[in-house]
From TrEMBL:
SUPFAM superfamilies: 4-helical cytokines. This is Interleukin-26. It comes from the Eukaryota. Gene3D superfamilies: 1.20.1250.10.
Length: 183
């Protein structure tokens, strides 16, 4: 037998074929797990965020909004939050964007002294739970396609100082509604 014939016969042996198919199956399973892990991010967030946490935040946010001073000088038509949608294909918001928005609210809105004096009891702990649950279930290595829009929102809030924070608190119910719609 020639060397080429032996090489062809060796490469076609049943043992090699079984090993190759097992290796192929193993690689495809690993690839499937990786795809499922990234696509399943929303499923993990749905499971990890308790509905009662959102309901409690909703109730306390409404109580907070009722305690805030009335809007006089600040334009009612000005919207700080970007226009996102959970059900439509364009301007669709996901868990990553919600995590970034909650991060901004934690740092720029609810930490302000003008807002802290109105916060209902245990509101900080509820926000902390939501923030850390989102941190846990959202991959921070991904980049949002709306990061510029979210940064623009953060600049608007910071630029308007306390008035921006008051307006942002009034719009926080939109964020809770988005979370509820994604669940």
């Amino acid at each position: 037998m020639k060397k080429a014939d032996r090489l062809l016969q060796f490469s076609m042996s049943p043992t090699i074929m079984v090993r190759m198919s097992a290796l192929t199956l193993f690689i495809s399973l690993i690839a499937g797990v990786v795809v499922t892990a990234t696509a399943g991010q929303g499923v993990a967030c749905r499971r990890e965020i308790p509905g009662e946490l959102i309901r409690e935040l909703w109730n306390r946010t409404n109580a907070l909004i009722n305690k805030l001073p009335k809007e006089e000088r600040f334009s009612r038509r000005l919207r700080l939050l970007p226009k996102f949608c959970t059900k439509c294909s364009e301007r669709s918001i996901g868990w990553l964007e919600l995590q970034k928005i909650i991060d901004i609210y934690q740092a720029s809105v609810f930490s302000r002294a003008a807002i802290k004096k109105f916060l209902p009891q245990h509101y900080d702990e509820l926000l902390y739970r939501l923030y850390h649950t989102l941190q846990h279930c959202v991959s921070s290595s991904k980049h949002s396609k709306y990061s510029k829009t979210i940064k623009k929102m953060a600049r608007k809030i910071k630029k308007r100082r306390d008035e921006g924070a008051l307006k942002a608190v009034r719009e926080f119910s939109f964020i809770l509604r988005w979370i509820d719609e994604l669940m």
